[in-house]
Automatic annotation (TrEMBL):
Signal peptide: none annotated. Residues 277-594 form the Vps52 C-terminal domain. It is found in: Golgi apparatus, trans-Golgi network. This is Vacuolar protein sorting-associated protein 52 homolog. GO terms for cellular component: cytosol; GARP complex. InterPro entries: Vps52, Vps52_C, Vps52_CC.
Amino acid sequence: MSRQLRQKKKSICCDYVSFSQKTDGDMTNLNLGELDLTTDEFILDEPVCVINVLTVVFSVCFQGVDLRQYSKQVESELQRIEQASIKDYIKESQNIALLHNQITACDSILERMEGMLSGFQSDLSSISSEIQTLQQQSVSMNVRLKNRQAVRSHLSQLVDELVVPGAMISTILDSPVTEQEFLEQLHELNNKINFAKELSFRETLACSDIQDIVDRLKLKAVSKIREFILQKIYSFRKPMTNYQIPQNTLLKYRFFYQFLLANERTVAKEIRDEYVDTMSKIYYSYFKSYSGRLLKVQYEEVADKDDLMGVEDTAKKDILYTVCFFSKPSLKSRNTIFTLGQRGTILSPAELEGPILVPHTAQRGDSRYPYETLFRSQHYALLDNGCREYLFLSDFFMVAGNSALDLFNSIMGKTLSMFLKSMSTYVSDCYDSIAVFLCIHIILRFRAITAKRTIPALDKYWEAVLELLWPRFEMILEMNIHSIRNTDPQKLGVLDTRPHYITRRYAEFSSAIVSINQTFPNERTHTLLGQLQVEVENFVLKMAAEFPSRRDQLIFLINNYDMMLSVLMERAADDSKEVEGFQQLLLARTQEFIEEILSPPFGGMIAFVKEAEALMEKGQLDRLKNEEVRITQLVRGFSSTWKQSVESMSQDVMRSFTNFKNGTSIIQGALTQLIQYYHGFHKILNQPTFRSLAVRSELINLHHLMVEVKKHKPNF
C-alpha cells in the first residue's frame, strides 16, 4: 500500500508539472497565505519528484494562481486516491490475511531452526574443545613414547655391551687364534673392553659386574696372541726360510698387534723389539753373505792407477784395452776400461729390474761379471727387500712418516752401514771410471723407482752412495785429463798416420759417458768432458807436429778426427757438443788436405785460377795477356796428364786413410774441387783478354771432363 501511495504522489507531481506548463500570468500578486509545505502527509522519496514539486510551486507562485484553491484541489485529489487505495486494500484483505498467517508460520519455523542451530553451535564448541584436549594428550603421549624409545636404545646398547656371551668366552679360551671365529670374537672383546673403560670413567656401577670377566678374557687373548706372533717371528730364524711367507701370514692377522697395542703395550713392545732384532740379524747376515759371494764372480783383472788414457800402450801390452779395430780381447772374461761395449745394457729396464745374480750358479758356469753388474744385483735385492719391508712395517705395526722411517732404520741400518763401508773400500781403490759412472746411474734409476713407489725409506742411503761415487768418478776423470796433458809424443813409439790408440781410448770413453749421461744430465760431467776434449785435441796436434810433412800431418789429423767422430756418433746424439766440435775440425782439415793433394799435379792451374780471379775482381785481368806461354803449358799439361794424376791421387788417398768411407768422401771432394777449378779456368779463358788464344781449342769440354771423372770415383 505504501508503494501505491508513493506512486499516486508521483502522479500528482507530474500533473502539477503539466499544469505549470499550461498556466501563464503575472506572479507578482502571488499570496501564499497559510500554505504549509512541511506537512508530513506529503513526503517525496525521490529527489526528482521534490525538484518537480518545487518547480510547480514556483511556477504557480509566479503565474498568480490561488494557492488555497489549488491546495484544496490537491487535497481532494489525495482523498480520492486514498479512498481508492482503501477499497483496493479491502478487496485484497483476504490475501493480506493469508499472507500474514504465512509470514507468522515462517517466523515460527525460523525460530525453531534458530533454536536448533544454536544447539548445534553449542555442541560444536564442545566437540572442538574435546578435540583440542585429545590433540594435547596425543602430543604428550608421542613425547613420552620417543623418550622411552631413546631410553630403550641406550639401555639396550648398554645391556648388550655389558653382557659377555658364552660363545665369546668359549671361543677366546678354546679356539686357535688362526680361526676366523676367534678374530671376530676378539673384535667384540676389544669393543667391550673399550666400552668398559668408558663406563668406568662415568662411574657406572654396572661396569663392575663384568670387569673381572673382561679382564680375564683379555689376559687370555693377549697370551695366545703373543705366543702366536713370537712363534712366527722365531720361524724367520730357520735356515733357508723364505721370511716373506710368515710376513704375509702376519699381515692377515694385523689386528692382533692392534689389540696388543691398545690393551697391553708391554707385550706389543716386546713383540716389536723381537721382530726388529730378528729381522736386523737376518738382513745383515743375508746381504753380507750375498755380497761376499758376488765378489767371487767379479773379473779378476781390474784397472789400477796406471790404467789411464794417456799411458803408453806398451806398459801392460794392452791387456785391458784393445787398439785394433777388429781384434778381440785376449781374455775371454775381461772387462775393458775405456770401452762401453755391452756394459751399457745394464741400464735398460729389462736388465735393471731383471732377476738378481745367483753366485753359485755363476761359479759353476765359470762366468765373470764387471763390478757394475754385481752392484746392480746387490742393490736391486736391497731395493726389493727394502720396499717390501717398509710396506710391511707401515701396515702391521701401524706406523707412518718419521716413525716408519725410524723403525725401518732400526732394522736395515746395520745392513746399509755395511754396504756403505764395503763400497767406500772398493771406491777408494777403483780406477774404472765407466764402472763408477754406471753405478751412479744405476742408483739414480733405483731412486726414481722408489720415488714412483712412494717409498722414502732408502732416500738417505741413495744420497750417501752418490756422495761416495761422484767424487771418485770426477777424480778418475781428472786423472785421465792430466795423463793426456802430460803425455810426451816422443815417448809413444813409432809414428803412424793411422788413428792413435789414445784418441781411440778417448773416443770410446767419451761416447760411453755421453750416451750414459743423456738420461740424467750432469753439468759437472759435461764440464770435465769438455776439458778432456780440449786436452785430446791438443794431444792430436802435438802428435801431428811430429810428422815432417804437412801432408802426413793432415792424414794423421783426418784419420784421428774421423775415427773419434765415428765412434761418438754410434752412441752420442748428432747435436752433442763433442760431435759438432769434431765435425768442424774434420771438415777444416779435409778441405786443407784436398788442396794439398791437388797441388802437385794441378798446382800451376790452381795458382793461375786464383791469381786471375783476384785480378778479375779488381778489373786488372789485362796484366795477364802476356802469359800466353804459361797458359799454353797449363792447357796442354792438364789435357795430357789429368787422367793419370786422378788415378794416382785416388790410389794414394785410399792407401792413406783407414776408413774407406772417409777416403771415398775425400776423393769425391777432391774431384769436385778439381772440376770447379777447371770450370774457373774455362771462364777465365773465355774473357776478352784471352779469346784470341789458339790454345783455347785444346781445352777439354767441361761436360766430358765430368763424365770421365765419374769413372774414377771409387765405389765401396
